[in-house]
Amino acid sequence: MLKKAAFILIFSFSLILFPQFSLTSSQEILKVPELSNPPKIDGVIENPLWEKEALKIEDFLQLNPKEKGKPTEKTVAYIGYDKKNIYFAFRCYDSDPKKLRATITNRDNIIDDDWIAVFIDTFNEKRRAYSFFINPRGVQMDLMRIEEGGNDYMDESWDTVFRSDGKIDKEGYTVEMAIPFKSIRFPDKENKVWGVMLGRTIARKGEIVIWPPVSKSIPGLLTQEVEIMIQGEVEKGKNFELMPIFTSLKNKNEKTDLQPGMNFKWGISSDLTLDLTLNPDFSHIEADAPQIDINQRFALYYSEKRPFFLEGMEIFQFPEIDMVYTRRIIDPAGGAKLTGKVGRFTYGLLSAYDTNPTESLWEVHNGGEGTDDNALFNIFRIKTDVFKESYLGFCLADKEIDGSYNRVLGADGQFRFKDKFFFSFQAIGSKSKSDDQETGIVPALYADLSYFSKHVGGGLYWMSIHPDFEASSGFINRVDYRTLGAYTSFRAYPEKKYLNQVSLGLSTGQRYAYFEDLLTDCWSRANLHLRFTEFSMMDITFQNSMERYEGIDFNKNSWTVEGENNLIGWLPFGFYFRTGNSIFYDPDDPFLGWSNTYGLYFNVKPNKRLQMSVDFSKETFWEERGGGQIYDFNAVRQRTTYQLSKTLSLRAIVDYYHEDNEIYGSFLVSWILRPGTVFFFGVDSNYLKGGSGRYGQDNYSIFIKFSYWWRI
After folding, report:
1. 333: left (phi > 0), else alpha (psi -120 to 50), else beta?
2. Do 16 and 43 sit in the same domain of this protein?
3. Rounded mean pLDDT, 100-107
4. What pLDDT, in 10s, does the model give residues 149-184?
5. Cα(95)–Cα(171) distance, rounded to whole angstroms?
6. Are 17 and 92 in the same domain?
7. How far does the chain reach from its first CA to its final CA, in angstroms?
8. Which of these, 53, 50, 87, lies nearest to 179 by C-alpha position?
C-alpha cells in the first residue's frame, strides 16, 4: 500500500519538474476599449457607442453540428468596459424570429431556450470560468464552468448580481449585459489579462456557434479561449453585502415561530471573500425529487440545494473521493466561509455548527436523527496552480461531536500534459474516535491516467479504501475494497443536422476485499452513445457483472436505454429503462431476481409563461423472470410553474409515493428581484392513506420568508 502511495506522489511531483508538460498560448491578446459613457442596459442596441468604441466580434463558427462550420444565422458581439462594469452586447440575426424559443421563467431555467453565453476566466487558468447566459427576453442564468482532469461540467449553484435585458425584433433578437467588477473575483493587477469565450445556441436547429473557433481534437473549451486585456484601475470587490432574513413558520398543532437571520459577505479584496450566516433558513428550498430508495445496498446521493453551501463550493471539488458533502451538515445554527485566490493559490475555509447532526448517510435525506448532540465542522482546502491547466491540492476536514471526532487529511492533484494526457490522484488518511474506541490513520487512494483525442480515448484507474476509513464530512458509502479498472472510447462525428456524434465505450473492472484476494465485484460494460444535437441524445448499455453479497456470488446481465430530447420546443423530455438480473438485498435470505426500472420526464410549455412537468419513476422486482412479484415501487412528481413576470412566479408541486401511500403537496409564491432580495410565501402538506382507503392530512406547514440584499 505504501508503495502505491509513493508511486502516486513521485509521479505527480515529476510532472512539476519537467517543463515539457507545460502549455502555452501563442494567441494575440485583444485589448478591450474603455467606453466613454456607460450604455443603457435595455436590450436595444441603438447606442452608437457599441459600434464606434467597443471591441466588435463577428467571426463566430459552429461548434455543433459541424466543427468550424459556417453558421446558419449571423451573430455579432461587442465588448467594452468602464471603471464599474464590463459590458457585452449581442445582435443575433434570425431568418424566422417567430420560431425563437424564449420563455419568461425563473432565473437559471433557460437551458432549453435560445441563448447567448459569455465565459470569463478572470484568473486565466484555463480550468474555471464565470458563465453568463441570457435568453432573447433577457432572463438570466449564471453558472461556473469547471474543466479539470479531462472532465468538464457546469456548476449551476453559482449566483451573482448583474444586469441584462433582451428584445426580439424582426431581424432576430438583441441582448445587452453589464457585469459589475464587484460581482466577480480577479487578480489585483493594473493590466488584467482574462480568458474569454462567447457562444450562441439556435435551439430549434440544435446548433451552437462559438468564438473563438475551437477544435474537438483538443479536449475542453477553456484551453482554447481568447485572451483579453483590461487596462488600468477598475472598481475592486472591496465591498460589504448584508442580507437580513425574517422567517415565520407555522406547523400543525404548533405555535407560529418567528426566526430572524443574517447573511453577511465581505469582499476583503478583489480575490478574497468572507461569508457569514447566522440562523439560516432554507424553508423555501424545493424538496428532494423522489428517488427509488427501496432494496438499496448503499446510501443514495442527494444534491445540495442550500445557497450558503453552494456558492464557491467548486473549490471543494475532488477528482473522485468526496471528502466534502455538505448535506452532512443537517441543521446549521451558523456558518462561516472564506474563499479566494491569491497568485497561484486557491483556498477555502468552511466552518459550521450543526444542531442536528447524523453519523449515517441513510439519514441525510430525512433531516438527521433528531439527537440532542451538536457538531462542529471545520474544512480547510488549498490548491496551487501547476502550469496553466493543472493543480496540486490539500484538504483537512474535521468533525467534532461530544468528545468524538473524525479527521480526514488528503492530498490530490490533476495534471494535463501534451494537450491530451491527464493524470489525477488522491491520497487520503482518516482518524476517528467514538466513545472509547479510536482508530489509527487509515488510507484511501485513487489514481487515474487517461488519454483523450477527437476520435479515441481511454484510461486506467485504481481506487482503494481501508475498512476503517471514515469521512464524516464527506460522501463515502462503501469501504473495504481495492478496485482496478480500464476504459476506452471511440468517437465518430457524422456532422449531420440531427446526428452530431456516435461513440462506443468499453469498460471493465474488478473489485477485491481490501486485505485479501477475495473477488467481490467484476464487470464488463459496452455503451453506444448517439448525440443527435448538443442537448438531445440516447445511450444503450449492456453490462455483464458479478456481485458478491453475504458470501454468495451473483452473476448478472442487464440492458439500459436512456435519452433526452429538446428538439420539440414545447415538450422537452427524457426517459430511462433498465431490465435484467437484480439482487434482493435481504441479509438473511438474498437471491437473484429480475427487475425492470422505468423513468420518464417531460416538461410541457403551452406558452412562454406556463410550464408543467412530470417526473415518473417505477421499479418492479420479481423472484425470477416471469415469476412472482416481490414489490412494485412507483413515485411521481408533478411540478407546475407560472411566471407572472421576470421576478414574480407561482409554483405547485405534488409528490406521490405508491409504496408508502403518501402524497406530498407544496405551493409557493416567489418574488425574486435579484439574488438575495426575495419574498416567499409557501404552504406544504403531507397526506397518508388510512385503513379506509382515504387520504388524510398528516401534517402541514405555512411559512413566510423575506430577505433584502444591500451592497455597501
Report:
1. alpha
2. no
3. 90
4. 667 778 777 788 899 999 999 999 999 999 999 888
5. 7
6. no
7. 54
8. 87
